[in-house]
Amino acid sequence: MRKSIYLDHAATTPTDPRVVDAMMPFFSDVYGNPSSTHSFGRKAEKAVENARQTIAGILNCERKEIVFTSCGTESDNMALRSVATEAKLNGKRAHLLTDHAEHHAISHTAAQLERTMDTRLTWLEVTSDGTILPETLKTSLGDGADNNTLVSILYANNEVGTIQPIPALAQTTHSAGALFHTDAVQAAGQLSLDVKQLGVDMLSLTAHKFYGPKGVGLLYIRDGLALLPAQTGGGQEADRRAGTHNVPLIVGMAKALELAYADLQDRVTHYRHLRDRLIAGVLATVPGAKLSGAEPDRRLPNHASFVIDGIDANALLMHLDLNGVAASSGSACNTGNPEPSDVLLSMGCSPSLALGSLRLTVGRGTSDADIDYVLSILPEAVERVRKVREAQGV
Fold first, then answer.
1. Which of 95, 107, 121, 330 has the lowest tally of Cβ within 10 angstroms?
2. The pairing of beta strand 289-291 with beta strand 217-221
3. Which of 262, 290, 312 is the last residue in one of the domains?
4. Is the pTM here over 0.85, yes or no?
5. Which residues are part of the catalytic machinery?
């Protein structure tokens, strides 16, 4: 029987059965609209507010600082667009600072705001391992920053796993008088989400990265930070995000986050063990393979990523898939794209080498036997792809 091994947990995770069980009553038993005043509505509203309280406890924030959204992309958009629009309405010009190693929910949104809202956009330089240094940010901020200036930097990079020094970057931002947002989508379930320790003004999450359902996320917004609503209508979420609450998914997100942080240390220990085996094994058995991103002590516990000389990533992924291994060449949003990754290019990687990227991300269900199997088939798969390219004269 062909093996089936999933090593793409950075793209999405399976919904925990305990999360599914928590959600089920809210599809057909407790089905009221939380905005309704009758008993059906009140029961649904209680579920939403209980979920909000659970999440606020993990983020170490107030319940009112949590805004439920449909996903991490919406949360990122809400953060950037709200600041840009607020500035424009006040006769000011917003200034966004971000980098080309961001998820496209940030970088593409920032570029569009530059075109359509006359937003000033500054691209920050990253190091060869994808890190943004506080001194680089300080220089780029310069003088005269205010609450029309927003810095947005990933907590942990989705393609190469590098963990950014968020507390130091947030402090540098605040010292200049600006606001700081982080996309913590990949960090959730692996790193602390304590917003007070991180020092952030806004933070984005989505549930499906930590064994919750797809289609639900949140944006933490520090109390006192006035932002225009992401969408207008019924006035839900304290007039910050209109639309009927998706009660089952909100309940599921809270349950998934609760479970993730109840056994965080065990999960992280498991992830690191398997990740380190992958890194050591790939570097030892695959000629021309190099680790992309930061060293293990500054990368996500479950994340191993490489660039491999002389291969086409999409061809390699097909070979792995035929052998029962699900992997990625980087962001799930980019898989299949023949263009080299913006993330790798921003780190100084050559276009040809960037086309040979491989991301292997482990999960709760990944075993040592899975890693053994992957390491046994990967060198041959790489060699086959190289021979095909050589035959094609590439």
1. 121
2. unpaired
3. 262
4. yes
5. 333
